[in-house]
Amino acid sequence: MLRAIAILLGQADHEQKAKKITETTAFHMVGAIEQLEKAADSHEGKIVALNSFVNEVRDSIDSTMARLEEVVEKTHATTCETSSETLPTEHTMQNEEHGKSYAKTLQARLPKPDSSIMACSEAQARQILVDCKSMSETSGLKDLTEAELVRKANTALEGMKAKGKDVPQDASFTSARKLRHGGVIFEVDSIDIKAWLSCQSTSQAFSENFGSDTMIKDRTFQVIAEYVPTTFNPDSPTALAETEKSSKLRPGSLPKAKWIKPLAHRNPGQRSAFCTLSCKDRESANHAIHFGLTIEGHKVTVRKLLPEPTRYLKCQQLTSDHMAGSCRQESNTCGTCGMDHQTSECDFGAADPQHHYYVNCNLQGHAAWS
C-alpha cells in the first residue's frame, strides 16, 4: 500500500516538473516565434516585389522579341525581292556549274594579281641588255650618266635612220640602268620595239651606231636543276633540244646550261650533280620551276637561281667593291688552298682535298668555290 502511494506521489512530482518545463519553454519560444513571423512577413514582401520585377522584365523581353521578329521578317522579304531581281535562278546556276571547267573554277578562286608586280613585269618585258665586248668600252659606258646613255642610244637610232634602216616611228629609249660589270639595261617604249631590236640584223646595225664593241644580249632567266644525271652534256645542243622536247618546252627555250661544280672536282663515281640553265623567257623559266625538267630520262626539280655574293678572284674577299684588275692586294690568294698563287695554278690543293683552305672563314677542309 505504501509502495503504491509512493509511486503516485512520484508521478505527480514528474507531472509538475514537466508542466514547469513546458511553461518555461513556451515562454522563451514566444519571442523567437514572434521574430520568425516578422522575418517571414518581411521576406514575403520582398518575394512579392521580386516576382513583380521578374514579370516586368519578362514582359519587356517579350515585346522586344516581337519587334525583332517583325524586323527580321521585313529584312528577309526585302532580301528575297532583291535576290530575285539580281541573282540567277537555281536552274541557271546548275547549268553554269555544269558547264564550268576545272580551270575556270580554279581561276575564280585565285587572288587578284598585285598591280605593282604586274607593272614591274611589264617594265621588264620592255628591257634589253646592251653589253660590251672589251674592258675599255665597258669603262666608257660606266663613266656616262643614265641621261647620257639614253641620249646615246636614241642617237644610234637616228644614225640607223640616216643609213636607210627601217626604224619604227615610235622607237625610242626611255631609261637606262647601269650594271656593276659595265653593261646597261635599257627600257624601250613597247614590247614590239624590244622584239624589233632583238632581231640579229637590227641588233648589229644598232651596235655599229651605238659603239663598235657593244652588242645586244638576250636577257635570260637563270634556274638551277638539282640532281641531274652526270651523263648529261650541257655543251651539246642536241642534249638541250632533247631536254626541251621531253619537258614540253618550245624549241630554243634553253639556250645554255652549265655544271655548277667543275668536272675535275667531282667525287669518283658521282652519278648526279647540280647545273644551271638559262631560259629564254619568263614563261619557260616558270614552266620549268612549276613542272620540273626531264633530263636524260630523269625528272629533276628546278628552282630559281638566287644571286650569290661576288667573290673576287685575286683576294677571294666577299665584301670588297672592286674588280680583280683594281685589287690593292699585292699577291694572289688561291681559292683552293689559300696560298699565294692563282687558283688555276694550284697543284697542292687539287691533289689532296684535305689541304683545301678558305681564307675568309679561316677553316681547313673546303675551298672558296665549294
Provide an overview of this structure.
The protein is α+β, with helices and mostly antiparallel strands. Helices cover about 50% and strands about 15% of the residues. A four-stranded antiparallel sheet has the order 2-3-1-4. Strand 2 (about 175-180) and strand 3 form a beta hairpin. The longest helix is centred in the N-terminal third of the chain and has 85 residues, at about 1-85.
Task: Specify the oligomeric state.
Answer: single chain
Strand order, biggest sheet?
2-3-1-4
Mean pLDDT level: 78
Number of strands: 12
Could you outline the blueprint of secondary structure elements for this entry?
Blueprint lengths: L1 H85 L3 H10 L2 H8 L5 H11 L1 E6 L2 H9 L2 H17 L10 E6 L5 E5 L2 H8 L1 H11 L3 E4 L3 E9 L7 H10 L9 E4 L12 E8 L2 H10 L1 E3 L2 E3 L1 E3 L43 H4 L5 E2 L4 E2 L6
Antiparallel strand pairs: 1-3, 1-4, 2-3, 5-7, 5-10, 6-7, 8-9, 11-12
